[in-house]
Amino acid sequence: MARTVWDSTVGKKTVMAVSGVIMLMYLVAHVIGNLKIFFGPEEFNHYGHWLRTVGEPFMHYEWTLWLIRVVLAGAVVAHAVCAYQLSRRDIKARPSKYVHRKPQASYATRTMRWGGIILGLFIVWHVLDLTTGTVHSGGFQAGHPYQNVVDTFSTWYGNVIYIVAMLALGLHIRHGFWSAAQTLGVGSRARDRALKTIADVLALLLTAGFIAVPVGVMTGVVS
Ligand code: HEM
Q1: CB of 206 closer than 6 A to ligand 1?
Q2: Looking at the predicted structure, is the pLDDT value of residue 203 above 80?
Q3: Which residue in 14, 160, 162, 171 is a FRET match for 118, CA 20 to 30 A apart?
Q4: Alpha-carbon separation of residue 100 from 15, 95, 104 (angstroms)
Q5: Whose CA is nearest to atom 36 of ligand 1?
Q6: Do the domain assignments include residue 223?
Q7: Between the CA of residue 191 and those of 133, 153, 168, what are the distances in Å?
Q8: 30 CB under 6 A from ligand 1?
Q9: Which domain holds residue 85?
Q10: How far is the CA of 149 from the centre of ligand 1 (A)?
């Protein structure tokens, strides 16, 4: 049964929709947390510390954080694997016998594929930059995310990488939210306009909220 669902196109689309919603919920929480940077180093670093102690004393140090990381990593992998498999299916199913030019995927489909690749690469960069410090520009200081964020956005390439990724994120969410609603059966004639508006507003708020941080550092509001 599980095998049949997994093998079906609808099954894969459902996995993509559910994992997408999980990541979206994380991003809403993440952007709210990031905006705390405008309240100064003490509040932002305190928030970073809280992420590690949340759930105590029931949970041990970092247990909740690791639980979130595992769920999130699972969602990213499931989303990427299904996207890859659906793309392959789509390419194979294209009629090519009688046409001379290769039929192209739609603009939305291409945007989603390229956007997904950009975001996948971004997440790897981002974790190596601000969580492990491996590719961080200044001297990475564990426990001092405020200073680490300021360092990142004090380099031109840090700003370029993040801003390009955030624009890709906005486009990805705008179309992804809409597709997920259709797959999960939330869409209907009456609701489609409202769903499109929600997708637009959500994408705009998340993009603007995330981009506010590098802009804050570049303009000296955050320093
Ligand atoms: C300008 C935009 C962003 C800023 C300033 C930012 C900032 C940060 C910071 C400071 C951390 C480390 C937190 C800590 O260790 O205390 C972090 C972790 C993380 N961020 Fe972002 N972030 C941004 C955008 C994003 C986006 C768009 C995504 C996903 C697409 C994302 C996904 C993650 C993930 C997965 C982690 C790792 C969490 C962990 O395992 O500890 N971030 N971010």
Answers
A1: no
A2: yes
A3: 14
A4: 35, 11, 12
A5: 127
A6: no
A7: 45, 40, 26
A8: yes
A9: 2-95+106-218
A10: 10
Specify if 12 maps to a domain: yes
Query: What is the per-residue pLDDT across 114-128, written as a single tens digit (0 to 9) for each?
Result: 999 999 999 999 999
- Does ligand 1 have an atom closer than 6 angstroms to the CB of 126? yes
Tell me if 101 is assigned to some domain: no
Q: Count the domains in the chain.
A: 1
- If you compute the radius of gyration of the chain from its CA atoms, what whole number of angstroms results? 20
Is the separation of the CB atoms in 207 and 43 below 8 Å? no
Structural domain contains residue 100: no
pLDDT score at 106: 87
Pocket test for ligand 1, best of 30, 72, 144, 148 (most atoms within 8 A of CB): 30
pLDDT per position as a tens digit, 28-57: 999 999 999 999 999 999 999 999 999 999
pTM of the model: 0.93
Calpha distance 147→222 (Å, rounded)? 10
User: Residue 67 is part of a domain; what is its CATH number?
Assistant: 1.20.1300.10
